[in-house]
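Task 17 of the worksheet. Students: predict the tertiary structure of the chain below and write it out as structure tokens. Keep your answer in the requested format; marks are given for formatting as well as content.
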Amino acid sequence: MPNNLLAGKVGIISGALDHKSIAWKVAQKAHAEGARFVLTNAPLAMRMGEIKQLAEECGALIVPADATSVEELENLFSQATEHLGGKLDFVLHSIGMSPNIRKKKHYGELDYKFFQQTLDVSALSFHKMLAVAERQDALNEWGSVVALSYIAAQRAFLDYTDMTQAKAMLESIARSYGQRLGKLKKVRVNTISQSPTRTTAGNGIGGFDAFFEFADKMSPLGNAPAEACADYCVSLFSDLTRYVTMQNLMHDGGFSTTGISAEVVEMITQASGSGE
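Model answer:
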């Protein structure tokens, strides 16, 4: 049941591609909780996705923006504050892309131009977004900025390749800019490390189905679904989490602190044929 947690709050939600996207779920939840917002994505992604349907459902304006372009981000924040009638209370950064993963290049054969694109799209775009917001003084005091990360920022995972470095950089930017914006405007900046989720982007990673099942068996609560991640984002946008900042918050059903589970032991035992 909605509780009007975001009544009167306005913001920007990036990265909604289709109904599988976490950003899509965040938009729906934020709308149900009383928020108004602008939707944004890269022009190419918008042509591939279904964002117009979401905009109609939520009564939201769409402002296309390439998040690697400072000029386009400046236009995004200017249009958002004008359309919404003032400064912003929340921003969601749900942006990630690796040409190396798309081209199925393993970690030892990365194309470095692709690597730079991965970092620019998936991490530096977060710094650019925050820097533009700061220069335009576009965020209200006690505002909240959230970016979506993954545990591969701290641990090595096969086939996640250069996105591992991108997520590590993303989390570092959240800490550094969280300190800066906290002192300047009492704005908090956090990342959420989400369970593997069956999104369009996630399904493009090699071996995703196997790891999804492994993580689900490892996690005491099971994998956190996209809808639950959206609820978590809403809680971070709300006034209930005013003093949470510069954190990478695990939203993974307990995966990140589980050594091994009975389900995984049973699976390995059966696979090795060593069971009784």
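Marker's comment: The longest helix spans residues 112-135. The first strand starts at residue 10 and ends at 14.
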